[in-house]
Amino acid sequence: MEILVCIKQVPDDSVNIKMNPATNAPDLDIATPIVNAFDTYALEMATRLKEAIGDSTITVVSVGPDKAKDAIKTCLAVGASKGYVVKADATDTISTADALAKAVAKIEEAEGVKFDIIFCGKESTDCASGQVGTMLAEDLDVPVVTNLVDIEKIDAGISAKQETEEGYNIIEVAMPCVVTVTKPEYEPRYPTIKSKMAARKIPIGELEIGDVVAPAVTVVANAEPPKKAAGVKINEETLEESMAMALGMMRDAKVL
């Protein structure tokens, strides 16, 4: 089985990002670039599928600058076999999906393969649009299943466990297909020193794909989210008095 995992290098979301007053943009220099969290779940799910069925290859691809190779090397140390970075002027979900679709065709031609499953994280932690995976499936004209928490190979294709607000769906879909992954019940594996050393020796391909669909989104302005107001502490003499005051404040605020 040929598996492709699409990843994105994003700022570490554990760092509190502030606005840079000189540029009126988020100051991302203070955050270390890492692999998008949902993409690490996608890679882990793909790796477990590979281990379950055997005879499979995982390729990782990322649209981004040359420094995105660091993210790809991380993936090569935890399950992936090959990696490509796509040089394209993609700044929104539409142009990114178009760049990935064109990259899929180029990688398949270069490697002489056809991808059976393309894994994507359900969203990125920097923009959180959650659209690239479904747009990529549309561009490739293949089925898509979103918000996976588990997957297994069946004769007809794959069986996907999809998380919903009400519970779970079990969906069977033919290959080739695209799947997007949310947080499963397991955590991504950590690289070992040995796997890191091996990953450094794997060459990362560079793809020049030319023009992509023009971005349809324009960033008008950036602003920090409003700071949360301090809470009100209610500490009356009795529980009944505290409840009465709380209800009164809720009525005054018209939330009750």
From TrEMBL:
Cross-referenced InterPro entries: ETF_a/b_N (IPR014730), ETF_b (IPR012255), ETF_beta_N (IPR033948), Rossmann-like_a/b/a_fold (IPR014729)
GO molecular function: electron transfer activity
Ranges for domain Electron transfer flavoprotein alpha/beta-subunit N-terminal: 23-216
Protein name (record): Electron transfer flavoprotein small subunit
